[in-house]
Design brief:
Elements lengths: L1 H27 L12 H40 L5 H55 L19 H4 L5 H13 L8 H13 L6 H5 L8 H100 L1
Helix pairs in contact: 2-3, 5-8
Length: about 325
């Protein structure tokens, strides 16, 4: 009995707290004098819907409890006038079975309802935790609203076409895709996209991961997550094509570079042969010139020697005559 009064007292206290919260919401959020009244209109509609559901559930629960109470009272009345007959015993048995089945059905219904509420509470707490982490991430990010640095006036603007004009068409297609769909995250912020990838990798890309991902990204609906999955699949396909095209393009460029170097080496080798031939010819010419000079020097020496001998001979002849 004491436990019953304690439970009733706790229920009454919770009901008072709920009424106070409703008054605060009506005062601060749903007041006509609130500047953000229009922003909270959707939240007010959801709140009214949930309030109506609570009242309906409360009425249904009261009706079920009244039904069980009436069945128990009827059973008690039957026990006041006990008749030791098989018909009477069978009648009591039927009443007891009805009460037992009704109570069991009520308990099962309430258990399912409580489990569903606990599941919704866990999802709500998970969403709140996710939003808190996201807000913390925003607070740690640098101020992106700062005044941008002045750029050079004469600097031309570059586009995906300008950057990729010398690259394969797959690269240009990938760059256009990024430009049209919001970059490497598909228009999502870093936190939502990384959470999406984490859920996707956990379930290895199976379709089941989308429903599991909804509570982890409370700012996105299930439809938005499905659309992001479609975008990500196309992103992977185009990115892989881009990588293959770049690898092929690099292979071709390396081959062309090797051919160019081979031609340069051939040209340089032929030029070296010509230079060596010219050097050999020049050395041969120099050798001939030196040989000619040596021969001329020898001839000159022989002439000088002959003149000296001639002079000596003439001197001896003069001496002998005298």
């Amino acid at each position: 009995m004491a436990k019953k009064h304690e439970i009733l007292r706790e229920i009454k206290q919770l009901d008072i707290k709920l009424q106070n919260m409703d008054r605060e919401k009506a005062t601060h959020l749903y007041s006509k004098r609130n500047d953000f009244r229009q922003d909270f209109a959707h939240l007010e509609d959801i709140d009214l819907k949930l309030s109506h559901e609570r009242k309906t559930e409360k009425i249904k629960t009261k009706q079920q409890l009244d039904k069980i109470r009436n069945m128990v009272r009827r059973f008690r009345r039957e026990l006041q006038d006990v008749k030791p007959t098989p018909e009477f015993v069978e009648k009591l048995k039927i009443i007891m079975e009805d009460i037992e089945s009704t109570v069991s059905a009520f308990k099962e219904q309430q258990r399912d309802s409580y489990e569903e509420m606990m599941r919704e509470e866990r999802i709500a707490m998970q969403e709140i935790s996710t939003i808190n982490k996201k807000i913390e991430t925003w607070s740690q990010m640098p101020n992106t609203l700062a005044e941008p640095k002045p750029s050079h006036v004469n600097k031309p603007l570059t586009s995906a076409r300008d950057v990729t004009k010398d690259l394969p068409s797959e690269v240009a297609a990938f760059e256009r895709f990024l430009e049209q769909t919001g970059g490497h995250r598909g228009g999502w912020d870093e936190y939502d996209h990384q959470t999406f990838l984490k859920c996707r990798n956990k379930h290895k890309g199976k379709p089941l991961f989308i429903r599991e991902c909804v509570p982890s990204i409370p700012t996105r609906s299930e439809q938005q997550i499905r659309e992001h999955e479609d975008w990500f699949q196309e992103y992977q396909t185009l990115n892989e094509k881009k990588k293959q095209a770049i690898r092929k393009w690099r292979t071709i460029k390396q081959y062309e570079k090797a051919e160019a170097l081979a031609h340069v080496e051939e040209d340089s080798s032929s030029e070296d042969d010509e230079i060596k031939a010219e050097q050999a010819e020049q050395l041969e010419q120099e050798r001939k010139e030196k040989l000619a000079k040596v021969n001329a020097w020898k001839v000159q020496k022989e002439l000088e020697k002959a003149e000296q001998e001639e002079k000596k001979t003439k001197g001896r002849i003069k001496t002998s005559h005298s």
